[in-house]
Amino acid sequence: MHPSITTIGFDADDTLWQNEQFFRSSERQFADLLSPHAKFDDLSGRLLAVEKRNLDLYGFGIKGFTLSLIETAVEVTEGEVPSSVIAEILAAGREMLRHPVETLPHVQETLEALADQYRLVLITKGDLFDQERKLAQSGLGDFFDAVEIVSNKDRNTYERIFRRHGDGPERSMMIGNSLKSDVVPAIEAGSWGIFVPHELTWALEHVEAPVAEPRFRQIEHLAELMPLLAEIG
Ligand SMILES: [Mg+2]
Predict the structure, then answer these.
(1) pLDDT-flagged residues of the chain (< 50)
(2) 194 CA to middle of ligand 1, Å?
(3) With contact defined as beta carbons under 8 Å apart, do 25 and 32 qualify?
(4) How far apart are CA 178 and CA 16, in angstroms?
(5) Residues forming a β-bridge with 196
(6) Per CATH, which fold does 7-18+101-232 belong to?
(7) What is the pLDDT of residue 117?
(8) CA 124 to centroid of ligand 1, rounded, Å
(9) Which CATH code is given to the segment(s) 20-98?
């Protein structure tokens, strides 16, 4: 018998609302903008390498992504990228920061049903401004007892957050679309880790599913969460 769950952590991007699709469409726009100015193959790979290199400096989010787009543009054009293209990249970044929030299916009713019985904590990476804007626009803010916008999600993050806002990791559950950021480190901290795959997930968030872990589960969408909680307590 395990202690019952009192606290549930939710990832935000691509768990509660759409996110990655905006990055993908900006990336397509970026390729179109650059194609008259440079010959490149595997532009996505070049961009990913730049993003990876900058991650420790910029963290996760749209502003860092925009800077990485500019850096990649400079690289692939060998310094010849026109300033008009840079201006368009900056405009695309601003557009991303303004995009309307699109919540995913079953989110609203699931949070509503859980909010009375559990302490709900939103745990997300990304730009502070941007995440606060999306939470406000989503109308989901009132369901959460706490919001944690963090620069990284590792085992210590979940230990700290579930101690601060709940009864410790053992009595907590984390739900998200990233095995690497949401599921695996939460399980390492001693919590349950529930994987809700999204069709689009950033390449740097992929790791193997911890299928042998007793506290690992995978669900198709958030409507499966209530039955799962009933099953495991
Ligand atoms: Mg996510």
Answers:
(1) none
(2) 12
(3) no
(4) 12
(5) none
(6) Rossmann fold (3.40.50)
(7) 95
(8) 8
(9) 1.10.150.240
